[in-house]
Amino acid sequence: MTAMYHRLPVSAYTSQDWFDREQALIFSRSWRYAGLAEDVPEPGHYIAVQAGLNNLFIVMGRDRRLRAFHNICRHRGTQLIRAVGKSQKALTCPYHDWTYDLEGNLVSVPDEAREYPGGLDKSCLGLKPASVDIWRGMLFVHPDPRAPGLAEWFGAVDPHLGPHKSDQLAEYPEARQTYEIKANWKIVVENYIDVYHLSHLHANTLHMYDHAKAEYGWKGPHYHFWEPPSAAYAKDLEKNLPTPRVIPQPHTGTWVPMLFPGIGIGASEDSWNLFIITPLGPKLTRVENRTKLASASEWEFSKQAWSSQGFWKNFGGPKYSGSDASGEDDPMASGDFTAEDIYACEQQQKSLQSPYFEVGPAAAGESPVIRHQQAVLDFLAAQETPAP
Asked: Tell me: the pLDDT tens digits for 187-236?
């Protein structure tokens, strides 16, 4: 079999030109995760998200309908809202107090008669609309108000993502975190979908699943992955699960897809997790994690924790220990698979700066990495091709 080689140049991971191109042509022209459906629960509630070059927000109207708009006042362009929150009945720009209703219509301009003596047609100065949609309990936005729906964007890969119904689960707030990785966003994605490293970098931290039996593939630009529990974990699985089940029997295993661009889901027998990747610069990426568990009583969680204690007390351990570890804060001695991944990504990014760096042949378990690189190239090419 002919060895596979990487499709992207080093500059794709290091240059500002590549970063700007991806922001303009990928993240500004695709569906972007904005939050969970429960983040916008009532009329007046809103949430903002950066989608490439576009800052967008979702707001629930008085009719309980979700709408998305570009977060740009039609007067001078000041952002109307920040992050997440709740307005009363309107959205007011902080600069000159131009005010819009929850449906995006401009309803009030201060000192209108004096400042605009010739009159002002407010009917054509409403907020510019964007697209909003809900899929698997998640909110997504698209800068284009005429964007094809999520059913079309994710439809082919949806059957491969597991039986989880995330909208019926409860978020575990203690697990929510945001952190930065000093690496290009594609390195973070490639690490996430690299099957080869699971048995090596995570030899002691993720061996509750059988990596040799992983099943994975692609539907368009979206990657899907499933692997079964290891023999030791599966031997008494219902007892060994650390928290109550979230999917019905006989479903087992873990589903770990990476949806384009940069939307990771980690779903197993007892949890559903989000891993949202946001590029901040050519060598800097933000990751947001959110976790949902069974909507069950504290007693059910306690019973499951007691039941699984025997398995988990002897499970795992650091990659390196003792004389192999460089210190107490060595990520390779942490026994934390996330710390291991961050370390690997950041070290790879550093090596890209070396004039001696030369990428080697890709292993079979790295084929998803090559396929993702091609997905990036294909998406860029499609956006750069003039419409007929």
From this structure: 999 999 999 888 877 877 788 899 999 999 999 999 999 999 999 999 99
Give the full edge-to-edge strand order of the sheet including 32-36: 32-36, 138-142, 129-135, 66-70, 54-60, 45-51, 84-86
What the block records as the tokens of 189 is 């994605």
CB 83 within 8 A of CB 69: no
DSSP of 95-144: TT--EEETTS-EEE-TTHHHH-TT---GGG-SPPEEEEEEETTEEEEES-
pTM (whole model) above 0.90: yes
- Classify residue 163 by its DSSP letter: S
Q: How far is CA 343 from CA 95, 109, 191, 249, 328, in A?
A: 43, 52, 11, 36, 15
pLDDT on residue 295: 95
List domains and CATH numbers for the chain: 32-148 (2.102.10.10), 155-384 (3.90.380.10)
Say if residues 244 and 293 touch (Cβ distance below 8 Å). yes
CA distance 286 to 279: 6
Whether 280 contacts 211, CB under 8 Å = no
Q: Comparing C-alpha atoms, which of 158, 178, 157 is closest to residue 166?
A: 158
Q: How far apart are CA 243 and CA 333, in angstroms?
A: 26
For residues 261-283, b (16+ Cβ closer than 10 Å) or e, as one string? Answer: bbbbbbbbbbbbbbbbbbbeebb
Burial label, 62 (beta-carbon count in 10 A; 0-12, 13-18, 19+): exposed
Which residues 6+ apart lie within 8 Å of 184 measured at CB? 12, 13, 14, 19, 279, 282, 283, 285, 349
Please answer whether residues 161 and 253 qualify as being in contact, where contact means their C-beta atoms are separated by less than 8 angstroms.
Answer: no
**What proportion of the chain, given as a percentage, has pLDDT over 70?**
96
